[in-house]
Specification:
The chain is an alpha/beta fold and about 350 residues long. It has helices at about 25-30, 45-60, 80-90, 105-120, 130-140, 175-195, 195-210, 215-235, 250-255, 265-285, 290-300, 310-325, 350-355; strands at about 1-5, 15-20, 35-45, 65-70, 100-105, 125-130, 145-150, 150-160, 165, 335-340, 340-350. The chain binds nicotinamide-adenine-dinucleotide and zinc ion. Nicotinamide-adenine-dinucleotide binds near residues 43, 77, 153, 171 and 173.
């Protein structure tokens, strides 16, 4: 078991990484000294697999949980479901000291976090992430929110959980494509912050692909550590936190312009990371060997590293890039790498240079 602290003053909390955490959910919540009434918000997939164990554990520790299940998929990150969840919390008479558990992937975590941030102007919540992406990324750091028709994550709040329980056992049932998609974020942490982690990933990729427990524990914990360090220094993304967006400027535009769902988030990020590495070579002199290692590791993990673009799609992709939240004063800003393990944010790049690295 590994415990990773997230240091944010009176909003500090722990991330617990290891096997067997879900059956201990109730005992862990009891340590937080919250109210007796609580809710577990999950989706149809995670609910089918894990709700019973979560409810049993909570009940065994004396809590009175209500289960709220939303449909699986990105569409559930919407205001209509926020309201539905609020109504069910009110019907179950949750009060200020009550708490909510987010049991599922990033969709459930983002939705639940926002529901918790807004119900009664904020009730405590606990993250139990069950996808690799949620364990290494979305459950940590307090970004919560939902989508609007006009764009992703446009409504939200910075709202930190009281605890994050990463039960590695839950990853066993994750579909391969989802798991591999999560690996894109894992590899990203190596690129942006930790050359040693990157080299470890290169060495241990076969074990990681087999979901070997010891390898997963060390990798998930290291990714959480990095996210915690970054968020601890820049909770609301005024600077450093932007490095977590490496590969995301082009990645988001790919997700957006190809219609959500065609590429999973990590798949789009992998393509974006390779393009960002190429840009890094021209703009910051990233050694070509480093760029090749990035592309090779992503490809070996089973991620796409390139995309076919005709003139029309290229135009659409560019338009999508300009709509990204990270655009400031009309200029597209990138996180670029100097070398593996070291990146710079806020790099303004001319449109021609971006064109040149797109396939
Ligand atoms: N808040 C943040 O900082 C942050 C960061 C990155 C991504 N996100 C958000 O996270 C979301 C993506 O998260 P995701 O990739 O986890 O998607 P997801 O929540 O949709 O989960 C992916 C799929 O796997 C299923 N699933 C989850 N755990 C499972 C398990 N253990 N076994 C079997 N199936 C399981 C889900 O039901 C779903 O069908 C996006 O909405 C994205 O915007 C948020
Ligand atoms: Zn991401």
């Amino acid at each position: 078991m590994r415990i990773v602290p997230v240091s944010l003053g009176n909003r500090s909390y722990q991330i617990k990484v290891g096997s067997g955490w879900l059956p201990r959910l109730g005992a862990e919540c009891a340590r937080l000294k919250l109210g007796q009434r609580c809710a577990v918000i999950t989706d149809t997939n995670a609910g089918r697999l894990f709700a019973k164990a979560a409810l049993k554990s909570l009940a065994a520790s004396g809590f009175d949980p209500v289960l709220i299940t939303v449909p699986a998929g990105e569409k559930s990150k919407c205001l209509a479901l926020v309201e539905k969840c609020h109504d069910q919390l009110a019907a179950h008479r949750l009060e200020r000291k009550s708490f909510i558990v987010a049991l599922g992937g990033g969709v459930v975590g983002d939705l639940t976090g926002f529901v918790a941030a807004t119900y009664l102007r904020g009730v405590p919540f606990v993250q139990v992430p069950t996808s690799l992406l949620a364990q290494v990324d979305s459950s940590v750091g307090g970004k919560t929110g939902v989508n609007l028709k006009s764009g992703k994550n446009l409504v939200g709040a910075f709202y930190q959980p009281q605890l994050v329980l990463c039960d590695l056992d839950t990853l066993k049932t994750l579909p391969k494509r989802e798991y591999v998609s999560g690996l894109a974020e894992v590899i990203k942490y190596g690129i942006i912050y930790d050359a040693v982690l990157f080299a470890q990933l290169e060495r241990n990729l076969p074990k990681l692909l087999q979901r070997d427990a010891a390898t997963l524990r060390s990798v998930v914990a290291r990714c959480c550590e990095i996210k915690a360090e970054v968020v601890g220094q820049d909770e609301t993304e005024t600077g450093l936190r932007a490095i977590l967006n490496f590969g995301h400027t082009i990645g988001h535009a790919i997700e957006n312009s190809s219609g959500y769902g065609k590429y999973l988030h990590g798949e789009a990020i992998a393509i974006g990371a390779v393009a960002a590495a190429k840009l890094s070579r021209t703009v910051l002199g990233l050694p070509s060997g480093d760029g090749e290692r990035v592309e090779k590791l992503l490809a070996q993990a089973g991620l796409p590293v390139t995309i076919k673009l005709d003139a029309a799609r290229r135009k659409k992709l560019f338009a999508a890039m300009r709509l990204d939240k990270k655009v400031s004063h009309g200029e597209i800003q990138f996180v670029l790498a100097r070398k593996i393990g070291k990146v710079l944010w806020g790099q303004k790049v001319p449109a021609e240079a971006i064109q040149a690295v797109l396939p």
